[in-house]
């Protein structure tokens, strides 16, 4: 009997479900299904959670990009006017950041009977340099209204920078000049930027080299003023090193010689034409190579025959964005922005 019972038990084990209650069989099938589907449900829950986090990050990224874009537009409006006719003189300037925000800047200021001109290049690129830009421009304009000599203006900006206590100030290159229309004289101080060029009517080129060291390193650094005549037909080009250091596919730099040649080829053209034709020459030279640094160019031209009607700075402030290549932010060939007003 014992053997017979054991044999029946073994037979039951060999044919599972043959004698188990139907309720138990259904429960086992449910358990098996849950074991198979459980991990998939958890994966789906994780995926849904991750997607929500990704959507939130993308929304935050969009808000950040919009804020940076708006900051860039403010920067462009601070660098103004970008086209100006001031008596017998024409002024045109542009900045092209390698990223959204630029560490380069230029500023044109009416200082009573003279015109103040500034071009600056803050070390670094992107957000940090861009935040410092507005502060530097404020320091330059304040000093320009308190001091008459170009060297004194630059020295004061340097002292203010070195006085910063919160964090070390950025090293900054600056060209500042005062244009006196009564005497056709440009007094200037060049501190660390590539030498501005004076392109004469007879196509000779002079380099403006008087000044001093970059700003933000030595509080008591000494600066000197230079003086040149800006006669009818003469033209000043002040620029950041992003222009002359622009490289092509052969790793050659644009350099000052090419800049002089490009400007001389436009002798007699308006300041605005010289500005965009020179930027076009840089673009043609670089070809497909994207810029590695911010680029700024300021052109001042003494017209040979000024019309009787003069235009004030307020009427010619063109702060609307210029057409750009989508990939690099550089100007399109052969296209010029229409001035507002």
Sum up the structure in keywords:
341 residues, Phosphatase 2c, domain 1, six-stranded antiparallel sheet, six-stranded mixed sheet, 21% strand, elongated, disordered N terminus
Question: Could you explain how this protein is built, in words?
Answer:
With 341 residues, the chain is an alpha+beta fold. It has a domain at 79-316: PPM-type phosphatase domain (Phosphatase 2c, domain 1, 4-Layer Sandwich), CATH 3.60.40.10. Helix content is 39%, strand content 21%. It has a 6-stranded antiparallel β-sheet.
Bin the strand percentage.
15-25%
Order of secondary-structure elements: HHEEEEHHEEEEEEEHHHE
CATH class of the domain at 79-316: Alpha Beta
Provide the CATH superfamily of the domain at 79-316.
PPM-type phosphatase domain
**Low-confidence parts:** 1-17, 308-341
What is the terminal separation in angstroms? 115 Å
Give the second-level CATH assignment, the architecture of the domain at 79-316: 4-Layer Sandwich
User: Class by helix and strand content?
Assistant: alpha+beta
Into which percent range does the helicity of residues fall? 25-40%
Cα Rg? 34 Å
For the biggest β-sheet, the strand order reads: 1-2-12-11-7-8
CATH topology group of the domain at 79-316:
Phosphatase 2c, domain 1
- Total beta-strand segments: 12
Strand count, sense and closure of the main sheet? Answer: 6 strands, antiparallel
Shape: elongated
Question: How many helices?
Answer: 7
Summed over residues and divided by their number, the pLDDT gives a mean of 80
């Amino acid at each position: 009997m014992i053997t017979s019972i054991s044999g029946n038990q073994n037979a039951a084990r060999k044919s599972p479900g043959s004698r188990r209650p139907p309720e138990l069989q259904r429960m086992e099938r449910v358990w098996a299904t849950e074991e198979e589907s459980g991990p998939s449900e958890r994966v789906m829950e994780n995926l849904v959670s991750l997607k929500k986090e990704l959507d939130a990050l993308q929304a935050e990224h969009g808000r950040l990009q919009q804020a940076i874009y708006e900051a860039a537009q403010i920067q462009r409006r601070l660098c103004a006017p970008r086209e100006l006719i001031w008596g017998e003189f024409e002024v045109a300037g542009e900045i092209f950041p390698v990223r959204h925000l630029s560490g380069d800047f230029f500023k044109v200021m009416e200082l009573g009977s003279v015109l103040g001109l500034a071009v600056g290049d803050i070390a670094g690129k992107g957000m940090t340099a861009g935040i410092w830009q507005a502060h530097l421009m404020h320091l330059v304009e304040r000093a320009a209204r308190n001091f008459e000599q170009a060297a004194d203006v630059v020295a004061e900006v340097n002292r203010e920078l070195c006085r910063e206590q919160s964090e070390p100030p950025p090293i900054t290159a600056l060209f500042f000049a005062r244009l006196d229309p009564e005497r056709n004289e440009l007094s200037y101080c060049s501190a660390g930027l590539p030498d501005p060029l004076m392109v004469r009517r007879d196509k000779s080129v002079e380099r403006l080299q008087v000044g001093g060291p970059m700003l933000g390193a030595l509080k008591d650094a000494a600066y000197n003023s230079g003086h040149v005549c800006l006669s009818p037909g003469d033209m000043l080009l002040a620029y950041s090193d992003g222009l002359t250091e622009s490289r092509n596919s052969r790793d050659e730099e644009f350099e000052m010689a090419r800049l002089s040649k490009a400007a001389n080829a436009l002798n007699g053209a308006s300041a605005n034409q010289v500005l965009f034709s020179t930027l076009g020459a840089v673009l043609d030279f670089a070809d497909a190579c994207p810029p590695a640094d911010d680029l700024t160019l300021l052109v001042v031209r003494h017209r040979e025959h000024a019309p009787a009607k003069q235009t004030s700075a307020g009427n010619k402030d063109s702060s609307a964005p210029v057409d750009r290549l989508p990939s690099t932010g550089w100007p399109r060939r052969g296209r010029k922005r229409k001035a507002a007003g």
